[in-house]
Design goal:
The complex is a heterodimer of chains A (467) and B (382). Chain A has helices at residues 6-16, 22-28, 33-41, 51-57, 67-80, 84-96, 101-104, 107-120, 125-133, 136-141, 155-165, 173-182, 227-235, 238-252, 270-282, 287-296, 298-301, 311-322, 333-341, 364-377, 384-395, 402-412, 420-432, 441-459; strands at 186-188, 204-206, 216-218, 221-223. In chain A, a hairpin with a 2-residue loop joins β3 (216-218) and β4. Chain A is built from 24 helices and four strands. In chain A, the strands form two sheets. In chain A, strands 1-2 form a two-stranded antiparallel sheet. A two-stranded antiparallel ribbon of chain A has the order 3-4. In chain A, α12 (173-182) crosses α13. Among the domains of chain A are: 124-254 and 256-305, no CATH class; 384-465. In chain B, a hairpin with a 5-residue loop joins β3 (48-49) and β4. Chain B has 382 residues and is of the alpha/beta class. In chain B, α2 crosses α9, α5 (161-175) packs antiparallel against α6 (183-202) and α8 packs parallel to α9. Chain B is 34% helix and 14% strand. Chain B has two domains: 9-149 and 219-365, Alkaline Phosphatase, subunit A; 153-202, no CATH class. The radius of gyration of chain B is 21 Å and the shape is globular. In chain B, strands 1, 5, 6, 7, 8, 9, 10, 11 and 12 form a nine-stranded mixed sheet that branches. Classes of the chains: A mainly alpha (467), B alpha/beta (382).
């Protein structure tokens, strides 16, 4: 059976996951592409990450309110999961349904929300919205706990329609009011004890006495609607299929403008949105089927290195390349700080609109952090991932010419598809050192050093900032 | 204008978490203060008096000294209508001046665009500390963000000098934009070159600096020392931004808040002593703000999120003293258990923009707000 193109597999794994190691690529390329996609869409076929082991080393994870460690825990999962799309789809919904600990200061509910996205993230939109509407972190974040019969609070009702499902221009202010009434009485069990240090978990609580049971008219339907009815209607809207399709395109294919511009700026590839929306309609709103259509499409395959990596993608990808943190190691906590200084503090998006993505990830400060992080993590020839690259270079034969040296490094760091200009600069740099020699002790040492410098140049390149 | 021709410079100190203004500038002459705060109040005999009613927290002595020199303005009761009790939302409002919608551009980012329209200096504004605050963000504006001045720059992890230089040279060649490589790649490449340019200039600052002032080794002390070192190097920076975290004193306020105020006030005192030593204090104004004040009533351990807070503006050309009005402690005047603001923060910004930096404020703060007479005659537009 013919091997699947390695560059395409690496692309799929960068987008559907957080990159793949060379060993993983060796294994994956033996499978047909469709099979690979099907496996990604069925995480349950592969084992879970061993959280118990991590908890034995990071005791803070047994205390539910140390959010820095929980952020790092998520990055550990991104690096080590055998179910990459499960973590990636959780990150997708975290981007879309952006909920921050900053308001609640309650880590257990934030962690539980991400766990919900892992569990339901590939299911159907109706399930996803219903779980979201009953999620304690969301109920507090958008004040639905303050949404009372006779005194509606419209925060959740508005964002459900504006940012989470349909997008501006597809509903009226009256629809927001009516939807908000339907969600009155949807609240959560109070998680704050009197003692200021502890936190209890929370759960959904429905208070029938606080629910406005009157008749509502919402998007042309009339009845004594509950929140569940509103979600049934929202999930079936063509506008919702289109809006979520654009979100998926923006996250998995190519950077779109920021969400508030979507009612004004049309999608860069309307046909792609149509393909995804079709998959949504014909599958009863299945995210799994929308993603299958996406990953199998030509527009996805053609989008290599067309998207700026998010800080989580950059950090998890560089760590995978380094081969570090494959089991519990000291310094894991630094990784959450690393994404934060690059502009993405997990579980703490800046607003309900989520992070501004694409080119807005980059400013002089964040670029400095991105480059230095990758360079620092790939600075030691004895780092397992670097060692493997050096061993593979040696297998290429000695002496190794500068152009074989550059191309092999680009290959083993991704493959990273460098522009002609970048490749030319790397080549000129490599040529100054002449051929790599692995024959003598001194030659091997020097070649290892040069390999580290070359990998560092590759991960600090413009191209490496893109997924 | 300062005699050395240097342009007026603004240093912002953001206190993150909601500083307890009532325990910073204390209404010790009002019995209600002691009634509401059985646990966290500061006894009258320890307060550093300003007048018969108000006094500084005893751990704020260096700022009290500046106040007595006439260099410190207290802006009392600063806030905005319908104050948000959410940290992020309230900070966001302070950063963007947009209380009703979520905005992407910050007030100082927009100010940089006015100060350096030709984008000639990537160091026009510098943020010290981790992460870029939204206040400094604006489309197509370069702002430099420095975690640690001594290690700022690319490839610092590479120890060997020559190898690091080679890596930087290669980086520069890779980031020199190729024609027609697409807008995002172009932007990224330009930003990479900006980082190099900024780092090249910044690395000179620690080399030329010397001072007899010994700052504290705490984060705000280090940040303000970095500000002093860069300012004294004369790199054309007009806006410095620093952050001091930990002010969210829901619990254990009695031991934690004094430590914060001690570090903060020492850092401010050292900073101005340092500038005076170099005769560079004429053109610097420093503003301290926080996203909200805290509840009037303590919770037996600390104080919860409140509303009306307070800000400070400090500098040689500042008209020291009490500005605006201290919010009433009378429960009838509270806003759901919180002090009601008496002065809109956008007026404070307008004053800093127009009377100090010389920039029109209305487009930046979103309208016209009442300014305060914060600067003495001879200040810009004063």
């Amino acid at each position: 059976m013919a091997e699947t193109d390695r560059g395409l597999v690496a692309h799929l794994m960068r987008r559907a996951g957080f990159g793949a190691t060379q060993d993983e690529l060796d294994e994956l390329t033996a499978k047909p592409y469709e099979q690979m996609v099907d496996d990604l869409l069925h995480p349950e076929r592969f084992p879970e990450v061993d959280d118990i082991l991590l908890r034995r080393y990071y005791l803070e994870l047994n205390n539910p309110d140390t959010h820095g460690t929980w952020q790092a825990h998520w990055i550990y999962r991104m690096v080590n999961t055998k179910r990459p799309l499960q973590e990636k789809i959780a990150l997708f919904w975290h981007h879309v349904f952006a909920t921050s600990i900053g308001k609640s200061e309650h880590t257990p509910s934030a962690v539980a929300q991400i766990e919900t996205f892992r569990r339901n993230g590939l299911s159907d939109l109706r399930t996803i919205y219903l779980d979201l509407a009953r999620d304690p972190a969301m109920l507090f974040w958008l004040d639905n706990c303050e949404n009372h019969s006779g005194e509606p609070n419209e925060n959740w009702g508005r964002e459900l329609l504006e940012l989470f499902s349909m997008g501006v221009g597809n509903y009226t202010e009256q629809d927001i009011k009516e939807a908000s009434r339907a969600f009155t009485g949807w609240t959560f069990v109070q998680p704050l004890p009197l003692d200021p240090y502890s936190r209890y978990p929370s759960e959904f609580l429905y208070l029938p006495g606080d629910h406005d049971d009157g008749e509502k008219t919402f998007l042309g339907h009339t009845g004594r609607f509950t929140g569940q009815d509103i979600i049934d209607i929202v999930a079936a809207q063509p506008a919702t299929a289109n809006f979520i399709s654009r979100h998926l395109y923006n996250f998995f294919v190519s950077d779109e403008p920021q969400v508030p511009a979507w009612s004004i700026v049309p999608p860069q590839d309307p046909e792609a949105i149509e393909v995804l929306a079709d998959a949504c309609r014909s599958s009863g709103g299945s995210v799994r089927e929308m993603l299958r259509a996406l990953f199998l499409s030509d527009f996805f395959k053609a989008a290599r290195f067309k998207k700026v990596k998010s800080p989580a993608e950059l950090v998890a990808g560089a760590i995978k390349l380094s081969g570090m943190h494959r089991d519990p190691q000291p310094g894991l906590g630094d990784l959450s700080g690393a994404t934060a200084v690059m502009g993405q503090s997990l579980l703490t998006p800046p607003t309900v609109e989520g992070w501004h993505t694409g080119r807005e990830w980059i400013d002089a400060g964040t670029l400095n952090e991105r480059v230095n992080f990758a360079v620092d993590r790939l600075s030691d020839p004895e780092t397992p991932g670097i060692r493997r690259i050096i061993d593979r270079l040696e297998c290429e034969g000695s002496p190794l010419s500068p152009d074989r040296f550059v191309d092999t490094c680009l290959d083993l760091a991704g493959p990273v598809e460098a522009s002609e200009d970048t490749r030319k600069q790397l080549l000129e740099h490599a040529a100054q050192g002449g051929d790599l020699d692995f024959e003598t002790e001194r030659g091997r040492e020097r070649s290892a050093e040069r390999a580290v410098r070359m990998i560092q140049a590759v991960v600090s390149s413009v191209e490496y900032q893109f997924a | 204008m300062p005699e050395n021709g240097a342009a007026p410079t603004l240093v912002v100190v953001q206190l993150t978490g909601g500083n307890d203004f009532m325990n910073t500038v204390i209404p010790y002459g009002n019995d209600l203060y002691y009634d509401f705060r059985p646990v966290v109040s500061i006894p009258e005999d320890r307060v550093l008096p300003i007048d018969a009613n108000l006094g500084f927290n005893p751990h704020f002595a260096p700022v009290h000294d500046l106040y007595q020199r006439g260099d410190a303005a207290i802006v009392q009761g600063v806030g905005y209508p319908d104050s948000s009790r959410s940290h992020f939302r309230s900070m966001d409002i302070w950063h963007t001046c947009e209380p009703d919608t979520v905005a992407t551009e910050g007030w100082l980012g927009k100010t940089v665009r006015e100060l350096d329209p030709g984008k000639s200096n990537p160091l026009t504004a510098i943020s010290f500390g981790r992460g870029m605050p939204r206040a400094l963000v604006a489309q197509d504006v370069t702002v430099t963000s420095v975690g640690d001045l001594d290690t700022y720059g690319l490839m610092n992890g590479i120890q060997a000098r020559q190898q690091r230089q080679e890596a930087l040279d290669l980086f520069k060649r890779i980031y020199t934009p190729a024609v027609g490589s697409g807008p995002v790649t172009d932007y990224l490449a330009r930003t990479g070159i900006d980082v190099l340019r900024g780092a090249d200039k910044l690395k000179e600052a620690p080399k030329v600096y010397s001072s007899s002032v010994e700052y504290g080794s705490d984060p705000i002390g280090r940040s303000l020392r970095d500000v002093a070192r860069v300012h004294l190097a004369g790199l054309g920076t007009r806006i410095f931004y620093t952050q001091h975290g930990g002010y969210d004193t829901h619990a254990n306020e009695v031991p934690t808040h004094p430590k914060l105020l001690t570090d903060l006030s020492r850092a401010i005192g050292d900073f101005f002593a340092d500038l005076r030593e170099h005769d560079a204090h004429h053109d610097v104004a420093l503003m301290v703000f926080t996203e909200f004040g805290r509840r009037v009533r303590d919770n037996n351990s600390g104080t919860d999120h409140g509303a009306g807070g307070g800000a400070f503006v400090i500098g040689e050309r500042v008209r020291g003293g009490l500005h605006a009005e201290y919010p009433s402690l009378d429960p009838a005047e509270h806003d759901s258990g919180d002090l009601k603001h008496t002065y809109d923060f956008r007026g404070l910004y307008a004053t800093l923009l127009e009377d100090w930096l010389g920039v029109e404020s209305a487009p930046i703060v979103g309208g016209n707000f009442e300014k305060l007479p914060l600067f003495v005659q001879g200040g810009r537009g004063g």
